[in-house]
Amino acid sequence: MVDQDSIPTRKWASGVTGSPGIAHSVLARDDETPANVADIYNQAGDDYASYADGDPSQLFAFGGMHAYADRHVWAVLETKLADLRASGKRSVRFLDAGCGPGTWLRRLILRARALGFSSITARGFDIAEAQIQRARLTAAASLSEVNVTFDVADLADRLPEPDASVDITLCLYSALSHLPVERLTDISGEIARVTSGHFITTVRSIGSTPTAFVESLENVRRLKHDHTNDRCEIDLSDGRHMAFGFHLFTADELRNHFARNFDIEDLRGLDLFHGRFMPDARWNPSQAAESQIADELDRLERAYATNTEFMDRATHLLLIARSRQVATSIENLDSNSAALDLAIDRTCPT
Ligand SMILES: C[S@@+](CC[C@H](N)C(=O)[O-])C[C@H]1O[C@@H](n2cnc3c(N)ncnc32)[C@H](O)[C@@H]1O
């Protein structure tokens, strides 16, 4: 059912009937405090990881519902990691803000290990305790010999990390959208304070197709997004009702929030042409022509990914921001003092 009647200017509304959702107790949340955003992801519990990431044992298969954007995000992260290793770094530190079940941090850690980093430190935090519990359990089972912690914490608070101590900071899949827009300048400043390398984020664009965040869209009975008040309301087919704050970004707006504190290396739209539905016969009935259509969609994506008007209609905006700070990790201090010793040796012959 589509709630068309109550749509003022710039409201999204959509709804599709379909297969029944996973049984949960009914959520009835009508305000937008962080606790209520946390409740939604707490209630989703372990189901969120399967919704967001597909099969948890196939970390690099990217075959799930969000595969298109996942593959792009991962290509960026892999390149940044490989660049760090190629620069001679042997230790690396990651931070994932709004980490959910910790899947992205696990991917980074496993690849860093494979690349030969000898010291890996990682912290993920999220406002939803159930997600953090899941992240801790999975990490305990699969990430031995790595200094990895997961905390319940709010993105709006000061980060415990020292200045310029994190090589790669993530804030993926709209964690930022749940925060009040007026807090984003401070949040950007705080992330910039701790990041010595890159900050990588994705948010939904202003013209993106509707999402139910923790549930597939086919389980949505009614969805209403009020852009004026940054408020999203969703009724699911199983009777659950969710109402919470959610902001959709224009590309310019996202850039401006972070350009104050970072150099913007890249900003692009992901999944402009809904290629993520490619394997779905309901969207693409002519499976015979699949590879030809896929190639053409790829070509179009590449051609328009950084075109402002198209970006604002992408499913996600991907921002890659480079720190203006100089790293202050022990390793860097060591190599700086080694360089200093060398310089002293050269300038002060005995
Ligand atoms: C769509 S999920 C993305 C999770 C994870 N980044 C990923 O890509 O799988 C958004 C996450 O942001 C978290 N979140 C929302 N508001 C937050 C806040 N103020 N502080 C920390 N985490 C927050 C939610 O609990 C949720 O786990």
Percent of residues in helices comes to 25-40%
CATH class: Alpha Beta
Strand content: 15-25%
Give the structural class: alpha/beta
Through-space gap between termini: 84 Å
Count of distinct strands: 11
Mean pLDDT: 81
What can you see in these coordinates?
By secondary structure, the protein is of the alpha/beta class. The protein has a single domain (31-208, 248-347), classed as 3-Layer(aba) Sandwich (Rossmann fold). The chain contains ten helices and eleven strands. The chain has helices at 34-44, 46-53, 67-86, 103-115, 129-142, 184-194, 251-259, 290-304, 308-311, 330-347, and strands at residues 11-14, 91-97, 119-126, 147-152, 166-171, 195-204, 220-226, 231-236, 241-245, 262-270, 316-323. Strands 4-3-2-5-6-11-10 form a seven-stranded mixed beta sheet, sandwiched between helices. A four-stranded antiparallel beta sheet has the order 1-7-8-9. A hairpin with a 4-residue loop joins strand 8 and strand 9. Helix 3 runs parallel beside helix 4. The protein is globular and about 50 Å long. It starts with 10 loop residues before the first strand and ends with a helix. Mean pLDDT is 81; it is low at 1-30 and 332-350. Bound molecules: S-adenosylmethionine (SAM). S-adenosylmethionine binds at residues 34, 37-38, 41, 52, 98-100, 103-104, 126-128, 131, 154-156, 172-175, 178-179, 213.
